[in-house]
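Structure ticket #2291
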Amino acid sequence: MPRESFPMGSVRIRPGTVRNLELPITKLVTGADVSLPVRVVHGREDGPTVWVDAAIHGDEVNGVEVIRQMMAGLDPKTFRGTLIAVPVVNVLGFMNGDRYLPDRRDLNRSFPGSGRGSLASRIAHLFMTEVVDKCEVGIDLHTGADRRSNLPQIRADLDDRRTHELAERFGAPVMLHAKIRDGSLRHAARERGATVLLYEAGENLRFDDYAVDAGVVGVRRVLAALGMVEDDPGPADPPSRECRQSSWVRARRTGILRLDAHLGQEVADGERLGSLVDSFGKTLRAVYANRSGVVIGRNEAPLVNSGDAIVHIAW
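Resolution: structure written out below.
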């Protein structure tokens, strides 16, 4: 018996087809429509329903490229199940190269939202009802915040067996057990029964090949693990390192940051990571690791103030 068509917005997608569509969000002051771009791959054969999203923060563009490349090789005629791809969730922030929405709200603190709330709340509500509520598994693609770069990593509830299995299959260099924040997509989706992986990699407002490549392969591994595609990139080599905690080394002086530690580097407690210097190059303070672990994040800003986060270490 053939699969049923898949409902999305006001349309239905036939089995064995790909459909691009737009879900209305709001209007600009000019009267132009603003819509959520969605691509649905509805396979001919039964299987899970999964979503992949990016740019919940409008300046985090690596995930947009991950989705573009990942979708390029999918054939709806051999695909099993249904994939919903939303490359740009925060459309208005993306247009302005801004992390936030025009009302300065953080979309990833606005879930599950409300159809009658703020703009952020309405976008969150639309995403929940049209995407999350139809899916069993979700992959939420993120990038380091302003002037920070992240080692490719999965952040998830590793105490949940199903989540742990999929995080392992994704195969990022690190998988970090991370608490769920109220108002986040991950929290709201978990409350609705979905298994969610959050991928962090690279820096904002730029394409980092190492972040994009790891993301594309990781998403494909998850789709293969779920039986949705035959083309399995195979297990990661080396396998993901599981970390249970993380913390930032912070600047103890204001100065110009000269950082030697690189992403993925193994560091020992007390190891020198770099230095803070003045404008003539005089060392003001050395920067040391406050514990042993792996570097999963770096501050890329040359100028830092006392107390700023410099190096993110996980263990």
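Closing remark: Residues 6-241 form a domain with the Aminopeptidase fold (CATH 3.40.630.10).
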